[in-house]
Amino acid sequence: MRGVPGVQSAAFTAYLPLSGTENQWAFDIEGRPAKPAGVYDLTCYRPVSAGYFETIGIPIDHGRGFETRITRTVLLLWRSTSRWRVRFWNHENPIGRRLRFSGPEWRTIVGIVGDVHHAA
Fold it and tell me: pTM here?
């Protein structure tokens, strides 16, 4: 789409803002002890492509956005989600920290972006 005349920016997401679709995943924080069986920390997870935040006008408050070649290994936190730093990182900056969803792959937090309503 980026090559189509008149298109200024293009990106994709699995869940559009205001679609009402929620997708919660359990996660682990690198360096923390494993949770007991049946106990989870949960967050909403919304896959997006490089350029997504810029395309729909969501500001990147801290850090950086995605680079096309490494989108599977990095994360950006919504501004409200970055309040986790109180709960999980003792008020420290979460950028550079790593999370893991199901599976062995760790993902590095590279930025914090403005909040978006995903439900009415």
Answer: 0.80
